[in-house]
Design brief:
By secondary structure, the chain is mostly helical. The protein is built from 9 helices and no strands.
Length: about 300
Amino acid sequence: MYMLGFSPSLNSAFADIIHSDIARYILITIYTVAFIGGTIGVIAMSFLLVKMNTLSVTTAAIINLVVLHSLLLLTVPFRLYYYISQKWIFGLAFCKAVSAMMHIHMYLTFLFYIITLVIRWLIFFQWKDKVEFYRKLHAVAASATVWIATLVIMLPLFSVRYGKSGEYGNTTCFTFQQELKKESVKALNYVIIAAVAAITCVLLGLQVFIILKVVKKLPGSLGSHQEFWAQIKSLMFISVIIICFLPYHLFRVYYIQHMKEKQLGNYNDICLSITAISCLDLLSFVVSGNRFFKQKIIMLRDKLACC
């Protein structure tokens, strides 16, 4: 018996429409949360950066994160407009640029996280008392090098080469799946996925080892020790990677192998949109660094211990 008396192909078409609409609502929700929370985080962290040591490499990494998140957040309204109106009116070239920004944001954020974690670990193991630039000009030069390599090399290459394997309409956007039919593109994706997964496992393993070492060393209540909170903050960087970046990469392995299944494109878009949630990291850092927040966490832990 056919559902509602229609043919299987028509039932399948209805199912595709329903799934597409659900996916669209999910995408709108995720990008809205990322835009609002990310904007608040960028503004809050910008005020805190005024008081920080500008020669610190960690501060330089945070400044770059603020800039990076800001650039992504500028493109989010265009994505929201597209998912709400279901029509792209800004041209294919700008669609490629917006699409490229999502990937650039993800991998540069991953890079700045690694830099920040490595510096924290160098200080923890007392290999370095502090990691700073000698002059502000050096900090600017280091940041400029990363951005020049990204904007001058990666972005134009992405815009020129991406979207050349198929025909894409001017009223649709973010549907460049046909590029994955190329064996070279598949191979590159597999290499990136393996690298991200391996680096994430190493980062998590090292951070867990450090936290266990800190727990054994510190006496009394852990919540009263600044060193413990410093390691928890480092764990937050890794948590963002695991929650926001890893699902997209792990799902992509399956997606590349089963591209013919139409609904997988929606799931891929949702996994990619979750990477934008990483923009909330600045807000979480500001909140976690607040003394009032720490006191509430300690009080909650003590109440749970008494129960």
